[in-house]
Amino acid sequence: MEKRRICLVIEDNDDIRGLIGMVLTRAGFEVRPVATGAAGIAAAADPAVSLVTLDLGLPDMDGHVVARAVRALSSAPLLFITARAEDDDLLAGMASGAAAYLTKPFRAQELRDAANHLCPGPVHAPAAAGAQAEPAKRRP
């Protein structure tokens, strides 16, 4: 049985939350979107969550507070996706428990690559032992 990859997306902007959800769904994740830090902290308590994306600019609480609370509840990697792009922001993000940091605007491929790096998908087993490989083509 394959392990499901479940990503908790904590993002207050509906459009960005939808975009993140679409990209990660296409990458093979089950996406659980929430719009507030409080909802994100509550959802992070689920041990099935295998990745968390987090916007730092949430309406109800500071993203770093959310990150520390999530980190206390879950060992899932934290991927910060935020408009805060200064070096100090990156360092503060890493100190809050971020495993990776993407700045907005981001490219879909960047998000997909970061998510797959932090939470690799299932590895498919090679063909069964004794199975025949496709024969090589002969040169005339």
Please outline the helices and strands.
Layout: E1 6-10, H1 14-26, E2 30-34, H2 37-44, E3 51-54, H3 63-73, E4 78-82, H4 87-95, E5 98-103, H5 108-118
Parallel strand pairs: 1-2, 1-3, 3-4, 4-5
Helix pairs in contact: 1-5, 2-3
Task: Characterize the biggest β-sheet.
Answer: 5 strands, parallel
From the spread of the alpha carbons, the general shape counts as globular
Q: Strand order, biggest sheet?
A: 2-1-3-4-5
The number of domains: 1
CATH topology: Rossmann fold
Terminal CA distance reads 46 Å
Provide the β-strand percentage band.
15-25%
Instruction: Kindly report the name of the CATH homologous superfamily.
Output: Response regulator
Question: Judging by the overall fold, what is the CATH architecture?
Answer: 3-Layer(aba) Sandwich
What is the H-and-E element order? EHEHEHEHEH
The SS-based structural class is alpha/beta
Q: Which bin fits the share of residues in helices?
A: 25-40%
Which parts are unreliable, with pLDDT below 50 for 5 consecutive residues or more?
124-140
- What is the number of beta strands? 5
CATH class equals Alpha Beta
Overall pLDDT? 86
**Helix run count:** 5
Task: Please compute the radius of gyration using only Cα atoms.
Answer: 18 Å
